[in-house]
Amino acid sequence: MTSYLLETVKSKFPQHVLETHAFRGDETVMVKKEALPEVAAFLRDSLGFDFLMDLTAVDYLPREPRFELVCHFYSSRHNYRLRLKCPVEGNAPSVASLTPLWAGANWFEREVWDMFGIKFEGHPDLRRILMYDGFEGHPLRKDYPLKKRQPRIQHRD
Q: Which end of the chain, N or C, is surrounded by fewer C-beta atoms within 10 Å?
């Protein structure tokens, strides 16, 4: 199944696939960020990936592109998994939202926004989910200062 998935995605999107690899059952496809919604829709509609298991990011500072968005998909019909990655630049990072395809992407994307500062274009409610509204910065960025002091939370009566 490994070569089938990778070859199918590569042949369908030759202009968008940056690389593929498989190691010990982990199949990964790296695509250009502008192709993310189209490739994800193909995975869902044509290859049977009906479950978005996880969506997160990795900060590779000082490398550019600085971030990688990482999505893990599962097909319950075929019992296979695929990791889809896309590079995201560090200067004003943004990528299209996957919430139109998977409603469950909503909270994953809010967490990535909160922790890394990557904006999801077209997200229905992009706001903090783990940190409080007045929190400054994005704490999982590698350049986030360890001893940064945050504004105090104002209590309502």
A: C
